[in-house]
Each structure stands twice: as structure tokens, then as C-alpha cells.
Specification:
Structural class: alpha/beta
Strand order of the largest sheet: 4-5-6-7
Strand content: 25-35%
Mean pLDDT: 95
Distance between the termini: 52 Å
Number of domains: 3
Low-confidence stretches: none
Radius of gyration: 18 Å
CATH topology of the largest domain: Histidine-containing Protein, Chain: A
CATH architecture of the largest domain: 2-Layer Sandwich
Largest sheet: 4 strands, mixed
Helix content: 25-40%
């Protein structure tokens, strides 16, 4: 398939996805040895879906996802890095993991840097769950438009749907706006299905976005019901 045709197919697929508004947020698609997506999108759902669509259309060609989420306020690099560090320090899962400066040669530690709205996480963590939770917390930090997660897991672990399910439950419980006890989560081949009830459509969308913040999620089926006053 020629590069022009491939770019056209990807663009057409993006235009037909309801989660992506390419008219309000145009996406630049560049073809070469890899396919690069660049530009600004409305939210994490649009970012994840755009990359997935490009991978499906381009098949074996590598996808470079350089899309960034539209942020309400741009923050200086040092301020943004400090905000991510505080966010990580505020969660029990990271109380015993040094967070901040350059990671030591041995042992778990997370170094946080920021530049041009991108938060970069580097170092070593003791589990896949820590790696995923660190990325989610970075995404939740105001001013972050993208997360470059370079964390390594040591000792190595095998990923699974069960592990992903556990992290998704933790993420829901970490969000004070969500009644996690009323949301059911099932994962099959990294595809997530949400069931249960929420207060309104706003919380329904929040629950879905929370899933997409977790790296490794390949899709989210939203079967949540809205029950006013629940």
C-alpha cells in the first residue's frame, strides 16, 4: 500500500470514530518507516483510540503516538515535574519508593522530569501494577498533556488480565468522584467491560476515561447504567 493511500485510510477511520473529533482537533499523520500521529486531542479516550485505529489500519507498520491532550493551563517544566512527584508521594503504593531525582543504580526508584507538557517517568518499580499506577497518577496531574513511561519492572513479571483487572479496581478506588463499590470490572484479552450504576452521565464518562488512562487497555465496553440519586 502506498504511503498516501495508507494515510488516507487512517484519516478516514479517525473521522468515523465518535471518540475523536478531527475537525475541532486536527491530527497530523506522517508516513515513512513508521506512522506518526501528532497534534492535540480532547482527552485520553481520543488519544488511545487514535493510536489503536492507526495500528489496525497500518497493520505491521510501527505507530509513533505523539498526540497530546489539550491542557487547561500550561505549567513551567519544573512546576509540572514537582506536581507529578507530589501526586506520587500522596499514594500509599509509592510510600516506600524514592520519587524525584535521578534513580539509584540499584533498587526501586522513580525519576520524574517534564518538558513541553510531557511528564517522563524513568527508573525501576517492583511490579507491573506500580508501573501502571504511576502513569495514571501522572495523567491525573493538571497540566500533563502526555506521559512518557520509561519505568522498568524488576524482577520481571508476566502480565495478565487478572493483573490488569486489579489495577483498574485500584484506579477506580483512587478516584474520590467514583463510587467504586458500585462498578463491576471484567477484562478479557485486555478488553474492559464496565457494569453497575453511576450517578449521572458525567460519572459514566469519568469511569470510562479512568480505564483508558491505564496502559495496556485495548478497549472499553461501557454498560454502566445511570440511576439518579444512586
Amino acid at each position: 500500500m502506498e504511503e498516501r493511500e495508507l494515510v488516507g485510510r487512517i484519516r478516514a477511520a479517525l473521522e468515523h470514530d465518535r471518540a475523536i473529533n478531527v475537525h475541532a482537533y486536527p491530527i497530523d499523520i506522517r508516513a515513512g518507516e513508521s506512522i506518526t500521529l501528532a497534534g492535540t486531542v480532547a482527552d485520553i479516550v481520543a488519544k488511545r483510540r487514535a493510536a489503536q485505529i492507526a495500528r489496525q489500519v497500518a497493520s505491521s507498520i510501527r505507530i509513533r503516538d505523539e498526540l497530546r491532550i489539550d491542557v487547561a493551563r500550561h505549567r513551567p517544566d519544573t512546576e509540572l515535574a514537582d506536581a507529578v512527584i507530589r501526586r506520587l508521594h500522596g499514594e500509599l503504593a509509592f510510600l516506600e519508593i524514592p520519587v524525584g531525582g535521578a534513580p539509584p543504580a540499584n533498587g526501586p526508584a522513580i525519576a520524574v522530569t517534564a518538558g513541553d507538557d510531557v511528564a517522563t517517568l524513568a527508573g525501576t518499580v517492583p511490579s507491573i501494577a506500580h508501573r501502571r499506577l504511576a502513569e495514571v497518577l501522572a495523567w491525573w496531574t493538571p497540566g500533563v498533556g502526555d506521559v512518557d513511561n520509561r519505568l522498568h519492572v524488576y524482577p520481571p513479571e508476566e502480565d495478565s488480565d487478572e493483573e490488569l483487572t486489579d489495577v483498574l479496581r485500584q484506579v477506580m478506588e483512587m478516584d474520590p468522584s467514583i463510587d467504586a463499590a458500585r462498578i463491576g470490572i471484567t477484562v478479557r484479552d485486555r478488553g474492559v467491560t464496565l457494569t453497575g450504576v453511576v450517578h449521572d452521565d458525567v460519572h459514566r464518562r469519568i469511569a470510562v476515561r479512568n480505564c483508558w488512562y491505564v496502559p495496556g487497555v485495548h478497549g472499553v465496553g461501557n454498560r454502566l447504567s445511570v440511576v439518579a440519586g444512586s
